[in-house]
């Protein structure tokens, strides 16, 4: 296919409210894909990476959140990027491949030659044009972006084996119990429209099996994946595993940063990763201690233009401060996310923490975590409208919305 005929669309899978439970208490207020990392909604980072794809016609977000939750964001980003971005709502979860298939007709209206498919909850540099080039060299139905992780953490992901010369995917196991490989599926793919035929194949096999089961009482007693609804199709187990070793799927390895964002703790780490990426891609978004914001800035920091920061506050590295926040004299902020309308009073310290919308932190108070972003009590999270009174110390705790803390706490969940 020549360059002129090439047409690309991108699809970002955003999931829905039942999928974001590990993101509580922050997901009470906002759908996880819209939670700010480096001052921009989580989904904004893959969307802005899509801008670099040649011949990109359109971006779709597919999820089962209410349409109104995404309406404002989708219309403002379409305007900013001068690129149509559309939210497509599933009536119920259909799985990571079933969700895509559900909107086959809408997507195929664009007559795409290639379809990018991205999980919204991964943080990386999204080397999409490079993946497209690699995919064209490989041929086949799809190319998966892969990354090496530590052998201890590999079992949380899809582990895979590929041919070192041809890059063909030879073996794929989703979250295996015994170690297969430290090379894992990063949740970013490019496919040809043949992906729809593959998903259709899984659905019709399921329908056939369901019909068979009706006549076999033994099979009816078995509660396994074969009894999933026919239109519920998982990309990893149902498509990637069976197609490995069939010259259909290939890999492209990224050597850049990559993380998965399932917990609030990881959002602090990923916010800092995106801030350091801004240093190269969008330095204008970083605070530099000049102009109105004369505070002492250390490393990569984002401060919303409407936030007020006292000149004697010391901010950074890895800090993101959202709209209308007020940071008092002598306050010290390191590796944290401060959400809209927060007040941090004089000489308070915030470290490895997320401070929820409209919360306030009193004078000389400390709100901090240990900085172990994957651990249950590795960071401190304050939900919406939490008040930490003057001089109170909060360490590695999760505080649900509308609480007032007048005594210190450590390693606790405050309901
Ligand atoms: N629209 C929609 N989205 C869905 C659905 N189910 C999952 N998703 C979205 O699809 C993506 C994958 O979610 P899961 O299927 O829950 O898998 P996972 O545990 O995140 O693991 C996947 O991603 C890892 C990389 O982050 C991979 O390593 C792993 O192999 C797997 O593909 C997420 O962005 C999630 O929001 C669905 O029914 N509908």
Any descriptors?
single chain, 415 residues, alpha/beta, Spore Coat Polysaccharide Biosynthesis Protein SpsA, Chain A, UDP N-Acetylglucosamine Acyltransferase, domain 1, 2 domains, 12-stranded parallel beta sheet, 7-stranded mixed beta sheet, 9 helices, 31 strands, 24% helix, 29% strand, binds guanosine-5'-diphosphate-alpha-D-mannose, NTP_transferase_dom, Mannose-1-phosphate guanyltransferase, GMPPB_C
What are the SSEs and their pairings?
Elements: E1 8-15, E2 36-37, E3 40-41, H1 44-50, E4 56-63, H2 67-81, E5 85-89, H3 95-102, H4 104-108, E6 114-119, E7 122-124, H5 128-138, E8 142-148, E9 158-162, E10 169-174, E11 183-191, H6 194-214, H7 217-221, H8 235-243, E12 249-253, E13 258-260, H9 264-281, E14 296-297, E15 301-303, E16 308-309, E17 314-315, E18 319-321, E19 326-327, E20 332-338, E21 343-344, E22 349-355, E23 360-361, E24 366-368, E25 380-382, E26 387-388, E27 393-395, E28 398-399, E29 404-405, E30 409-410, E31 413-414
Parallel strand pairs: 1-4, 1-6, 4-5, 8-12, 14-17, 15-18, 16-19, 17-20, 18-20, 19-21, 20-22, 21-23, 22-24, 22-25, 23-26, 24-27, 25-28, 26-29, 27-30, 28-31
Antiparallel strand pairs: 2-3, 6-11, 7-13, 8-11, 9-10
The structure holds guanosine-5'-diphosphate-alpha-D-mannose.
Guanosine-5'-diphosphate-alpha-D-mannose is lined by residues 13-15, 19, 62-64, 90, 93-96, 99, 119-122, 157-158, 174, 184-187, 236, 260.
Keywords: Nucleotidyltransferase, Transferase
GO molecular function: mannose-1-phosphate guanylyltransferase (GTP) activity
Domain Nucleotidyl transferase: 10-210
